[in-house]
Amino acid sequence: MNQKKQLIAILAFLIAVGLIGYTFVSAPTVPEDVLQEQVRAQGEVIYLENCAECHGREGKAVACYTEDGERVACVGRLLQTPDLLCGAPSLRLQAMSWNGSLESYLIAVTTVGRSENGMPAYGLTYGGALTEARIELVSTYIAGWQTENLCQG
Ligand code: HEC
Question: Which residue's CA is the closest to the ligand 1 atom numbered 30?
Fold first, then answer.
């Protein structure tokens, strides 16, 4: 190999290493909105499997279906309502004397339940079947119904 060829080989090698390094450094990080959409989608699945039967699709307590698609009467509270979701704290949180955030309220009720009123407990330590992570996901999903549209009226 003459010197010129050696030089070209070295340059090609350096460019290759540089390119590989660059792809690592600039490995696309998942954008925030994509992450949020993934969290929402996971929360939605948990909601549809566990909560929609009583609270209705999207928490509207209008049309409730069992997992088999059979229509049943909604017995859960309306969740997609300004009363619960809008304001800091919302009227419902004030009425319940809840001092924490909306999400902490949703997590607490879902974990502990209100069995005396027909709301089952979902926390593992309360005999339920949802891990803390899954309860957080479904609570984030419910809190996500707090849109400008819902709250401006
Ligand atoms: C068997 C029916 C039933 C199922 C299933 C159910 N709920 Fe409920 N839920 C209720 C009832 C009834 C209430 C009202 C309890 C009360 O007034 O004290 C309630 C209340 C709530 C509240 C409090 C709302 C407020 O305004 O204070 C939240 C939050 C809630 N449910 C979340 C969930 C989530 C999340 C799931 C699924 C993981 C779920 N529920 C599944 C029946 C149900």
Answer: 110
Domain CATH code at residue 104: 1.10.760.10
From first to last of the 153 residues of the chain, give the pLDDT tens digit: 578 888 888 888 788 877 777 777 777 788 999 999 999 999 999 999 999 999 999 999 999 998 888 999 999 999 999 999 999 899 999 999 999 999 999 999 999 999 999 999 999 999 999 999 999 999 999 999 999 999 996
Per the structure, the complete domain to which residue 115 belongs is given by 31-151
Q: Are residues 88 and 13 in the same domain?
A: no
| Residue 74 beta carbon below 6 angstroms from any ligand 1 atom | no
Specify whether 85 is located in the same domain as 55: yes
Same domain, 82 and 11: no
Protein residue with its CA nearest to atom 5 in ligand 1: 51
Which stretches of 51-101 are DSSP H helices?
52-55, 82-85, 91-95
